[in-house]
Each structure stands twice: as C-alpha cells, then as structure tokens.
Amino acid sequence: MTKLLSIKNLKIEGLTGEKWVEIVNGVDVALDRGEVLGLIGESGAGKSTIGLASMGYTRQGCRIASGSIVFDGMELFGASKAIKRKIRGARIAYVAQSAAASFNPAHRLIKQYAEGPIQHGQMSFAEAEQEAIGIYRRLLLPDPEGIGYRYPHQVSGGQLQRAMVAMAMSCQPDIIVFDEPTTALDVTTQIEVLAAIKNITRQFNTAALYITHDLAVVAQMADRIMVLRYGNLVEEGAARELLGNPKEEYTKQLLSVRTFRKETDQNDNNSNVILKVQNVSASYTGEEKVLEDINVKIRRGRTVALVGESGSGKSTLARVITGLLPPLQGKVIFEGNELPPALKSRDRESLRKMQMIYQMPDTALNPRQKVRKVIGRPLSFYFGMGGKEREDKIIDLLEKIELSEKYIERYPEELSGGEKQRICIARALAAKPNLIICDEVTSALDQLVAEEILKLLQSLQNELGVSYLFITHDLATVKAISDEIVVMLQGKIVEQGERQEILTPPHHEYTELLLSSVPEMDPDWLDNLLAERQAENEQQIEIS
Amino acid sequence: MAFFKLLRQSPLSARIGLAIILINVFAAIFVPFIAPYSETEIVGDVWISASIDHFLGTDHLGRDLFTRLLYGARNTIAIAFVTTLLSFLIGTISGFFAATLGGWTDLTMSRIVDIMMAFPTLIFALMVLSVTGTSVPALIVVIALLDSTRVYRLSRAVAMDIEVMEYVEAARLRGERIWWLMRHEILPNAMPPLVAEFGLRFCFVFLFIAALSFLGLGIQPPMADWGGMVRENAGGISFGIFKGLWPAGAIAFLTVGVNLIIDWFLHIASGLKD
Amino acid sequence: MDSLGKMVAKRVALGLTTLIVISLLIFLGVELLPGDVAETILGQSALPETVEAFRRELKLDLPPHIRYFTWLGDFFQGDFGNSLANKRPVAQQIGWRFANTMFLAAAAAVIAVPLAIILGILAALYRNSLFDRFISVVTLSTISFPEFFVAYILIALLSVEIILFPSISNINEQMSFLEKIHAIFLPCMTLTLVVVAHMMRQTRAAIINIMASPFIEMARLKGIKRARIIVLHALPNALSPVINVVAINLAYLVVGVVVVEVVFVYPGLGQLLVDSVSKRDIPVVQASGLIFAAIYIGLNLLADVLSIISNPRLRNPK
C-alpha cells in the first residue's frame, strides 16, 4: 500500500554566515492515513524543519537541497507554487507553537477559521461558521457559539491554542503538522490541549506529525516515534516498543532522564535555619498583590523547591528575597539578621552570602566578558583577590564545575548552553555563598544537559553544604532535587512540607491537579487520567 | 589585524565609502600643504572658468574655488565632528544614567527631552541662534545640545534593553556601583548601535550645519565652509554658472561615503544578510 | 472603547502641555539674552530714546509673567505684535506667507505620500530584487544630499539648461491655480524627492517587519494566495506603523520647507523666519516659530492618535 506521505533522503541546508550548512542530512519519513508519527529530539535536531518541509515549505535562510517529498502521489519538492498552495491548509495543515503570535491580531477567530475553507473553495462563510461551532465544541472550548467572534488577544493561551487546532481542522486535512503545540503552556493547561488534539485527530482519522522535545508527551500522542539528533535519524519504531525497549544509547539516555533522585537525609530537621521569609506581601503596582502572606524557611545544606505555574508569584518571591523588589509587608531574615528591604541598603557581606543562578544562561552572561572576568569579578569584588591568586582560584572553580582550565579565555558565544550554565554556577560559587537561589535553571536546557546540571548542583551541595532555593514549574525537577517543597498558586502558598509528605497522598487539591497533570512515559497515561477525571466529575454530579 | 581581514571581505560599496572618507580627512588635515593659494586670497576675476592655475576657477569674489573647497573641508568637517562628539558625550552619559538609575531621574530627563524633540530642530536652532548670535562656539554648543536629545533617546533605549538582561541584574545583586555597571556591563554591549548612530548623527549634524550656513546663520564668512560657499555662489546658477554645485556636491559626496560605511557596519553588526 | 478614548485624550493633553511649554521657552529665549535685550540688539551706540522706545515696543517695562500671558493671550487672538523692522503688524505679514507655505507643503505631500507608500511596499515585497536595490541606492543618495543640492541641480537642469520652470517661485493672489502650480513646480519637486526617500525607507522597513511575523507564515501555510496575504493579513497590521511614518514625515516636510523657500525665494513663512532671525526681529521670530512648532506638534500628535486607533489590539479591548 502506498503511504499518504513519503519523504525520502531529505536534505535541508541552512544559511550560517555566508555558507550553506546541511541541517537535515538525508532523513526518510513515511506516514500512513490516520497515523500519528512523533518526531522527537533536542534543539538542533531538525524536527521542525522536517515538519515544515513535509508541506514543501522552508523558513527564510533554509532550503531543501535534495530528496523527495511525495504526498498522496504528488511530488512537492520543486512543485509549482500553485500546487503547493492547493495542498497547504486544505490537505496538510499546520499548528504552531505560539498561537498568540500565529493568529493575525486584526481579525476575529472565525474569520481566520473560515479563510482556509473559503479560499480552497470548500464552503461558504455561513457554512464554515456552522462547522466551526461543531469543531469548537469537540475541542471543549467554552462558549463554542460565541468564541469565534472574539479577537485573538481576547482569548486565553490554552483556548487560543485549541482555536488554532480548530483552524487546522477547518478543511478536514489528511495530515496536521503539530509543531511543539503545548511547549509554551503550563502543565494543567497542556493536558487540556493534549486531550483536545488526541480526541479530534481520532474522530476525523487525521494523520499527524507530532513534533516535540518531550518524550512523555509524545508517548501519549504517537503511534510511532522517530528519534532525531543533529539532523539524523537515531531510531524509529512503534511507540510502545520504542519506549519499552529502546535500542540506541541516545534513546535510552533520553528515556532515563527522569531517573535521577536525590538521596534524602530525613533526619536533618534540626540543622539551623539560614533564611526565613516572614509574612511577606508584595506588589508591583502598589495595589494588586502578587504575593500574599508568604512564610518560607530554608535550612542549611538543604534544598527547598518552590513550585507553581506561570503567574503564581514564585519569581516575585525571589525578587523580594534578593532585595530587587522591596515587599509591602513582612521581613526577610538571613542568618538571624533582618535584611533591609531594598538592595541598595544591604551590605556587601550579606549580598555575598546569597547568590543567584538564572533560567537563561544566554542572558545571564555578559557576551563581552571572558570567563576569566565573569568568575574573576566576584573574587576581586568580595575578597580583593588579584594576580596569580585570583587566576588559581578561577581554575579551581572551573574544576569544580567540571570544565578544563582552557575555558578561562573563552567568550560566552564559544560555549554550549550547558557550559554557560556551569559558568553561571561557578560565578555564584566564587562568592562562597550560603544560599543560592536557582530560578528555573534547567528549563531552557535540553533534557540531558539539564540532568547533568542537576547532578552537578547536588554534588556541590554535598561538598560545600550550600542551601538552594529552587524555583521551578517542572515537577520532574522538583521530585529529583528537593528536600522540601512549597507549592504556590496565585501569590499564595497552597501547601508546604517535606518532599515525602507532599508527594505522597493525600494531596491538597491543587497539588493533586499539578502532580497528576505531568505527563508520564506510559502511553496509556493520558487516556487513563482523562477517564479517571471524567468518572470523578460524574460522581460529583451524582452526589450534588 | 582583524580590521584588514574585514576590509578584504568588504563589498565594493564599503570600500568606496572608506575611500571617500579618507580623501576628505586627508584634505582636511593637510590643506595648508596641498592648497595652491591661501583661504581668503583674491587671485583673479570673479567666476572665471577652470584652468591649469585654478582647477575649478574662482568664486564670487575672485578667490580660488579649489582652495576654498579644501579649506571648507577642514572647517566644516572639524566643526561637525566636534559637535557630534559633544552631542554624544552629553547624550550617552545622560541616557545611560537615566536607564540605570530609573525612577524620577529617568522621568525628568525623558520629559525634558520629549519637549525638546517635540520642537523642530531647525526652527529651535534658528530661534536660539537669533538670541545667542552665530559664533562658532555658540553654533557647536547649541547644535550639540539639540542633537544630544536623539542620542539620549537611543542610548537610553539601548541601555534599557541591556539593563533587563540578567547579567546586569547579577552585577547589581553583587553590589556593583553604577559606574561599574555602565562601564563594564552596559557600554561594551551598547557599542555597535552607538557606533552606527555616531555615523548617522555626524551626517545629520554635518548637513544641519551646512543648511544653517547656507541660510547665512551658521559659519560666517570669510571662513570657508561648504554650506556658506553654496550660498555665496548660488547667484550664478540662474546665469548658467554652476560654481555653487561644487561645494554642494562635496557635502553630498561625504555624506554618501559615511552612509555607505554605516550600512556596511550595520550589516556586519547584525550578522544578517538583508 | 473606554481605554482607547482615555489613551487618545492623554496624548492630546500631552500635546497641549508641550505646546504651552514650548511657548514658554520661546518667550524665555528673549529673556535669556545676556544684558539688556534692547541694548544688545540695537548696539552700544544706540540713542537712549531709541532704546526706550524699543523697550516699550517689546513691553520690557512690565514684569515677565504678565508679559508672557499678555503675549500668549494676544497670540491666540491673532495679534502677534508689531515687527521691529518695518513696524507693521506681524499678523499681516504672516497670514499670507503662512498660506503660501501650506500650499507648497500640501502640494508636495499630495505627490509624495502615495508615491512613497507604493514604492515602499513594492520594495519590501520584491526584497533584494534589482528594483529594491535600485530604490535603495536612490534613497541613500537623496537622504545624503542636502536639500539645496537637490534644488540647485533641478534648477540647473530644468530652469537653466532647458528652460521649463522658473528658478524663482514668485506667486501672488492674481495668479490662477495652474500658474501657481507652474511657479512652485521646482520647490515642490525638491521637497518631494527629499521626503519620499525617508518615507519609503521607513515604509519598507515596517512592511518587512510585518511580513516576518508568524501569522504571515501561518497564512502561507494555510495556502492563501500571496495577494490576499498582503492585502488582508499584512496591511491591516502595517497601517499603524505606516500612518506613523507618514505623519512624522509630513511634520518634517513643514520644517524642510524653510531651506527650500530660501533657495527659490518663495514668499513663505520659512523665508520670513530666516530673514527675521538675521535682522533679529524678535516678535516675528517668536510668532513664526510658535506657528511652526504648533504645526509640527499637531502632526506628531495626529500620528500618535491615528496609530493608536489603527492598532487592532487597542481598537478591540478585552
């Protein structure tokens, strides 16, 4: 039987500087009608590029060098614009990562929904309007009759993402290319979108290319999985088999990524408290509170994970602790002394003892400073070091973060993402801090690299006895590294306590929602969870 | 050297631009040695045609036009350069201060600049010069002040963009003082846009001074300057004597040169091909 | 609609405040003259009676704040005081010249705006084509050329070598509309050339910026025709930046008029201002300066307001 889509020996080149460099090196993709194929890989794997190429499209600065892309018997590589236009939208549709950027802000959702079917001559606007209500309803969008008449910026992120799925469905295409459609969403929202996508592709028997970096997500969505790395195919297989029995080392690494666990030291409750946040409330405007009555304690040598979704106020709390945002009420007590609320009035010694590591190592390092200056500056600033002494200390710190001394001459642009984050860690360590605030330090990194960073942080803690305040939205990270957990929602603490206590049922309602929404590798996880939640709902309805 | 390597890969337009600038700078520096006559010496009849003795003929008073053109390069370029430099000094320092300090410092400075910029520069300059008179120092200070508003806007915006970077926050949290932040964290990263802006501002100031001189309100005769020379020789144009086009062309020539270099620089700095 | 109205009202209030501050600055400018204004302007050798008369003329005998409010009050009633040079009311001199300046600027705008927008859009759509390169070379040169250079080249070509248009643009009320157009042809061309370059460059940049948005990519991936993408997806979003570009360049045009008027000896407000500055005719300088400022601020304000109104996100609030 011929495949619906069959890509053979696809080579794509990208322009770097003045040269064309191959970024996809001869990949084959085959897709049957109604099948969902997951393309998975870390950044630079070429998965999005392949997804777009399946529509005969490349972004600016990219070109298809050779190969063939046959869709339903038609060759798309080198096909005329008219042919490609007829296929795009009508037979192969695209769902992008950011719905907010991909909807035209000037038009109502329904107009953008209907544009495809009208332009491809499938139906009139009135017919499309009717169809849309049905599709919106199937995607469980609230107010399916009315939502189409809103503008994109009037709809929330998760809903907009589903509206984009609806738009892709509008022509009832044979294939939809999903390009990281849930990456920008919170976990609790992600699950709604995942469920919606799964539902609708099943109902219409639509084939899909599902592109993501998250194996657990792809496990829920895909029938078959292709693992990509640096533009090459690593491994391909049926989803269950590949997840259960990976053959390649790289796939195994990707799968084992979430296995790292800190060995807990249960009986450490009596070690002294180094940071105490007391009844803190804070606000950016002076009116609307983003933090309300927060109380947190951090003990020496322990890790407290502060977890919450976007808008929960977790990063704001870090700003209050560091003095960037003086609180409306409450105190920050560090090693027994109350710190002045504003950064300006804090003394150098208390600044030294509290260091920070950021989410984006790209913006956390000054691109015009060599590693020597980045790590050396805190040494001379806090300890007045110079010359040989300073040089030795820098090399010593580089050793601690498992980098060789030749890195001392490098600029940030000559480092990989993980190396940059290591340098940030070294910069923090240079101050000999007692507390390091880690703000989403692994979220911008690829999974394998993130794992390495977590291990490094843990071994540094074991060695130096430093405490961490670990701010994150990622529950896998929380499970891996925390001693204590603080769960935040809309500026308030929902629940806090020892890791074991928080992670074992019974949970607080929100913690339960959060924990249960994290995708697991088990391919049946999503279906089971949805069935479970539905059953609960029905139960509640019966009771009431 | 890195510069020569860049130059070897540079497009033709950039080389032309560089050549134009070098010719002008060379003329400006070495006028006394290459000019055949002195700046204000009357050497013959009015508006005589080009000859071996007078490459471009003479001007409306019978002075050698080529000599005047060379001295004009020196005066016009030097004044424009000093003005731009001053404007940058004022503009970048205040812009960086506004961005790093924020709060009411930023608010007051930005409001003042908003108001100054709400007023057309040429009209503003004309009015101020009607009060201060048109001496060269007054000209430099007035134009530098007016122009520094644009430099302020840009450097503030650039500094603000850098300011929100986490490496600046990291330095702040370390307890660094404002001078260190400006000198080590912000300035090195603000250089590319500022250098390009310097070129653009130079062109603007240069054209602006030329326009003022042309209107008779800039550099005053008998000092040779290009804008003024256009004005002096403009009367001949209706009679088919195009002497005034030489200095006007010289202005255009230099500005094109600088613009070509800016384009090249922006091209390199952005790393994108557009 | 409420927040939109509020934003617009805020801009208008800001514009008015700016105008007031500017008027204060213009007024204070005279105050800042070192020493006695009258003596500075008339020179050390002036007779005491002359100085006294001059002081009365400028109302220098009254305290500053009273003078300011009288001046401003008179200004809004159309009384701009008397010229120092010829003792005639300033309003009389300005009225006719102001109309001339607006006529010239409007003529240039009518040609320049549509031309610049069309060329800018074309250059953006056919980016890196021969047409785009050609356009960018032309704009680079016109941006680099001083107005008077462009003006004199036009004179040399179209007035001296081939006698088509007058090099001195004298117009008066007796002339018919066509005669007036003929008279101002060259200054109008000069202004057009200078403004088109700027406007086109910025329009091109605005369109290219929009065309790089993800929603344009999405439209392409929906299989929409190119023409439709441009008209329905790009233009509504480009409106706001393009309107801004146009208004700002119109403001520039009004000011650029000064040099061009001098070149063509055109009886406009700009030439009057330049003359009065060299004669130090303070009342005329103040009045024409304030008028130029008001137009400039007004156009910038218009740009702001229009670009707020044409922004779809602001027009349809949550």
Would you give an account of this structure?
The complex is a heterotrimer of chains A (544), B (274) and C (318). Helix content of chain A is 39%, strand content 24%. Chain A has 544 residues and is α/β, with parallel strands linked by helices. In chain A, strands 6-7-8-3-9-10 form a six-stranded mixed sheet, sandwiched between helices. In chain A, strands 16-17-18-13-19-20 form a six-stranded mixed sheet, sandwiched between helices. In chain A, strand 17, helix 17 (447-464) and strand 18 form a beta-alpha-beta unit. In chain A, helix 4 (109-119) crosses helix 5 and helix 14 (371-383) packs across helix 15. With 274 residues, chain B is mainly alpha-helical. Chain B is 74% helix and 0% strand. The model of chain B has no long low-confidence stretch (mean pLDDT 85). The termini of chain C are close together. At the B-C interface, helix 5, helix 8, helix 9 and helix 10 of B face helix 1, helix 6, helix 7, helix 11 and helix 12 of C.
Which shape of chain C, going by the Cα principal axes?
globular
Q: Which parts of chain C are unreliable, with pLDDT below 50 for 5 consecutive residues or more?
A: none
**Strand count, sense and closure of the main sheet of chain A?**
6 strands, mixed
Structural class of chain C: mainly alpha
Percent of residues in helices of chain C comes to over 70%
Round the Cα radius of gyration of chain C to an integer and report it. 24 Å
N- to C-terminal distance of chain A: 53 Å
| Topology of chain C as a string of helices (H) and strands (E) | HHHHHHHHHHHHHH
